[in-house]
Specification:
Number of strands: 6
Helix content: 25-40%
Strand content: 15-25%
Strand order of the largest sheet: 3-2-1-4-5-6
Largest sheet: 6 strands, parallel
Length: 191
């Protein structure tokens, strides 16, 4: 008999508690956290955020990449409420955003940043790529989109998330509950 044992992060090390911690900001803050390069879809995300035109919305981008690429991203985001934070701890970053966006254009095996966001009770908007859809129940703990359809499909998901506070709160609760397989370090066999 076989069973799946997911990669796991210790919730205590992530600063996760059982109590939901609200974001201390008005409006809605979307966030991206990870390496900044083409396959991660950051340009796609900025284009979608521009198309979404959500009142009182901002986008925080945590992570770093090659200088020329980061300069190009800043140019692309000109005129938008986008803040580039550089390298930040997931705990600090996830405490500042309402929803994490994972716009990967490549097939990520299993994005641990998704598990970390879920553990912090942050619903995730993600592309249907690689192992990520295993972690997101569309409409329950986040939203999934098909990146081949272009940035407008991500823009619609962001508008949907921002436009229904009650649904976002339900997704946040479900996100925390859904994170348990990815924070169960006791499931790993002893050496």
């Amino acid at each position: 008999q076989s069973r799946v044992i997911h990669n796991a992060r210790n919730p205590a090390a992530l600063g996760v508690t059982d109590a939901f911690v609200p974001v201390p900001a008005a409006g809605i803050r979307f966030g991206y956290l990870g390496r900044l390069d083409g396959p991660k879809g950051v340009e796609f995300l900025i284009d979608a955020f521009r198309q979404a035109k959500i009142d009182q919305a901002s986008l925080l981008i945590g992570g770093s990449g090659k200088t020329a690429y980061m300069d190009a991203l800043r140019d692309r985001a000109a005129g938008l409420p986008v803040e580039f934070l550089g390298n930040v701890s997931p705990q600090h970053f996830l405490g500042q955003v309402h929803s994490l966006v994972v716009p990967s254009l490549w097939h990520e095996p299993l994005g641990m940043v998704v598990a970390e966001a879920l553990a912090h009770g942050r619903p995730v908007i993600s592309s249907r790529r690689g192992g990520i859809p295993e972690m997101i129940d569309d409409g329950v703990n986040g939203l999934l989109f098909e990146p081949n359809e272009g940035p407008s499909v991500l823009a619609r998901a962001m508008v949907s998330m921002a436009g229904d506070k009650l649904a976002m709160d339900r997704m946040a609760e479900a996100a925390h509950a859904r994170s348990r397989p990815y924070s169960d370090v006791k499931a790993w066999p002893e050496k």
